[in-house]
Amino acid sequence: MHLAALSIYPVKSCRGLALETTALDRFGPRGDRRWMVVSPTGDMLTQREIRQMALVDVGPTAHGLRLGTADNGVDVRTPADTGNRLSVRVWGDRVEAVDAGDAAADWLETQLRRPCRLAFMPNDSIRRVDGAYAGSGETVSFADGFPLLLVSQASLDDLGERLGEAVPPNRFRPNLIVAGSEPFAEDGWRRIRIGDMEFDVAKPCSRCVIPSIIQETAERDPRINRVLAGFRRRNGQIFFGQNLLYQREGELNVGDPVEVLA
Q1: What's the CA gap between 45 and 67, in Å, rounded?
Q2: In this predicted model, what pLDDT tens digit does every residue of 222-238 receive, in sequence order?
Q3: In terms of pTM, does the model score above 0.70?
Q4: Residue 33 region, left (φ>0) first, then alpha (ψ -120 to 50), else beta?
Q5: Concatenated DSSP letters for 227-248?
Q6: pLDDT per residue over 195-230, tens digit each?
Q7: How far is CA 9 from CA 1, 150, 172, 189, in A?
Q8: Alpha-carbon 132 to chain mean position
Q9: How many angstroms separate the CA atoms of 73 and 57, rounded?
Q10: What number of H helices and E strands is found in the chain?
């Protein structure tokens, strides 16, 4: 088995970036979900509420990132840790963030058609992974709950066969795609090594409405969730992919060998 693809999503729920290599820091893959669109009260906004977020491209720049659509865009400078602080909410967590300024907020409000701000997680912000799964005080960015999400290519292919057409990986927004396993073999993994990094397989990923959103058009397509519900539903939830944890910083590269340790 090997690591076949690697992606990050700099702004939570906006478009991702495919990478060949990435460093892992205490937040997850470097740059992954360090930014988040929030309501005026600091609550996270995602494709669950605003499908048009799927159409917002995100690209790195020398001083931050560029948000763009097919028509226009805006450059956003990474705010200093000493910038205008605000408290934001990710599910049940309240987290310290820094406001990214009026230009970013105005552009996003125009594109998404609702009041919002862009928040950045500064280097000194601490958001703990749920202690029911993390025993070493692991921290995470604005990701839903864990620093890494893994899916296998075989599981995507199996789902595509059931659906009758190939399933784009971006419907599940994974960080890691592993090739060379059997379909859903990852359900039985408890600890794995990728390159020279070791990971605990913390829990299966429960899926929301986002896999039913076509990422290229923001249109609804509920077929994937309906097919998954037919064979991946447990206790009223649909599961696809695995959440990972790790205890030290390191590096991952496309092509790295993947070994099941337990």
Answers
A1: 16
A2: 999 999 999 999 999 99
A3: yes
A4: left
A5: HHHHHSEETTEEEEEEEEE-SS
A6: 999 999 999 999 999 999 999 999 999 999 999 999
A7: 24, 14, 12, 25
A8: 21
A9: 9
A10: 3, 19
